[in-house]
Amino acid sequence: MRRWPFFRNALLLILLVSVILWSVSVTAAGSGRLTPLSAALREAVSPVQGGLYQVSEQVYRLVSYPLQLVQATQRERKLEQEVESLRAQVYSLEEYRSEAQRLEAIVNYHPVYAASYGKLVAGVIGRNAGNWFRTLTIDRGSRAGVAPNQPVVTPDGLVGRVLDVTPDTARVLLITDPRSGVGSMILETRVPGIVVGGSAGTGGISLTDIPMIQDVQPGQTVVTSGTGSYFPQGIPIGVVTKVVNEPAGLFKTATVSPFADLNRLEEVIVLVPH
Prior knowledge:
By secondary structure, this protein is α+β, with helices and mostly antiparallel strands. It contains two helices and twelve strands, in the order ααββββββββββββ.
């Protein structure tokens, strides 16, 4: 308890000095001139003020850094979301562009050989690409006028023929199916042959029964001949890639690459007789 008067007096002294210094500073500010006492006090206090300023700057940086880090992380996440959104938009635009190109080709499909046929556009809704059978299912059936053995094409070339139908769907036998056989010929030379599906597992097509004396070269175009089959004459089938003589020596066989991309079909055209 004896120390209390000492502390009380010290506090009063500090308060008194503070009031005096404040009064001096106000007076100096009003006159625009520093008194010797004010100048001395400023000189004494300046180092302390500088130190306090540096300490406050360090404290501010220390406190604000985590906040800045959080804000930067939030901006990065937002940018990543915007990038993903833009990617999705680009993908959608590419899909629309691709679909528009396919549909434009179908609309502009007016070959001479299809003059006596109506064009029925169908979407591919399923496929069977097993080792033995190669078929696909389309979303048009007997209600729309689809019937067995009708030709199925794309603007690029022959796809196959209708195998069987239901009221709202149909199954298409692809030209790559081993059961398929299409009367064909070489466009440039009119050399006849039969395009058949590849053996199990190959998924290709070949032009067979070509007489040995006939000249067939890689790069020549194979089209339907219109004889002995369900297809009108002139439908493009593919291009000859290789010619092989058969062991018996009477015929030769040509490997053919189809024009239609049979593994990536999304829409096809069924040729319906008028």
